Amino acid sequence: MKSLESESIQNENTMSRIFASSISKDHIGQNLTLIGWIEDFRDMGKIGFISVRDMTGNFQGVLTGELLSTLRDVPRQSVILVKGTIQETKAENFQVEVKVEKIELLSKATNPLPIDPTGRVKSSMDKRLDSRALDLRNYKISNIFKTRSYVLNLIRKFLYSRMFVEVNTPKIIGSATEGGADLFGFEYFSKKAYLAQSPQLYKEQLTLGLERVFEISSYFRAEPSHTVRHLSEFVSVDLEAAFLDYGDIMDIVQELVISTINDLFVHRNKEMTLFENKQEILIDKIPRITYQKCLEDLKSLGEKIEFGEDLSDPALKKLGEIYPSFYFITDWPTKLKPFYILEHEKKPELSRSFDLQYGYLEIVSGGTREHHSERLRNKLLEKGLDPKSFSDHLQTFEWGMPPHSGCGLGFDRLMMMITNSTNIREVVLYPRDTERLSP
After folding, report:
1. CB distance 429 to 135 below 8 Å
2. 255-274 residue pLDDT tens
């Protein structure tokens, strides 16, 4: 009996293949080529049925005779090329099926596999991450990352339409530019260097000539957090715009979030249903709640926080009971914000800043920036930072720095909300945290 094993597929024109999701009754009678992984095989004796998955979904093949006998020795999740004629089917889950005339084994899977990619046998998060590439063969998991790709494209198109220019800033930096201690340091050609935790100073400088900029990239934070919403490497959507204040940036963020969610429910409703996300997240406007109002709301719930204190996780969870969807927290105490955030002129104890929350989860943080070099220098001193470490940055503020504002959006957290996930590791392909450095 001839083996299905193939030495090469160079003679097969795999580019002429058709994907599972494209097969319809219009193809009945046509001889087509399909490729995928064997997900199921039902051997009925004289006839067999295979379910094969590709990146778009499953198709069913019908086998008889020698092909059926040979396929019995091929493990599930092996990769096969199928040639056959499309015909009617009685199967409930398929429009049509393939009467298989030829099968070529492209790659044999070694069983048992470390996890079940069909998802029928549940595996722990750690086991799934250890075998992430295989985990993606589960259509529910792969849809997370297809949606992630789709959302990234939506964000880019939105920002391009608002005249933002996409930029790429260094991820290897020479000083702890934001004054934070949570940086990864390393030796860089006999010098001390760090991995960037944000593009903050660079994107501010770039408003000097480009006016409106954005960057979508990975950043790094050496914060020893052990929560379901923190990672050591994360993707941030950062934007900065000249001649706009923090209210204008909130308008942009609001429009971006609302238009993204609306688009998902229109063009990817099947995926949103798969995530069991409800249309209650469709909103027309995001409320803006001052920090002071938050304190009053929390006091009514028995949570007393003094002015100037940060809002703890328990406090944010209680606020989430009042505001279960999106809401902005505005006008934070100046001392809680970084040195580059501008304060209110008549109330310097309050900053021109905001956070966008989804329930207890912070998704965006932003504000109006200080654009006067001398005042910025004084703020560095007030925060206990050495202006000499920021000399390159301060110099640009003497070249006609425009008033500007901006924000950073935690993209992984946004994807948690969109996919209705409770753990940020679900929405990141290869997450990096305090324990995980591979694969």
Report:
1. no
2. 999 999 999 999 999 889 88
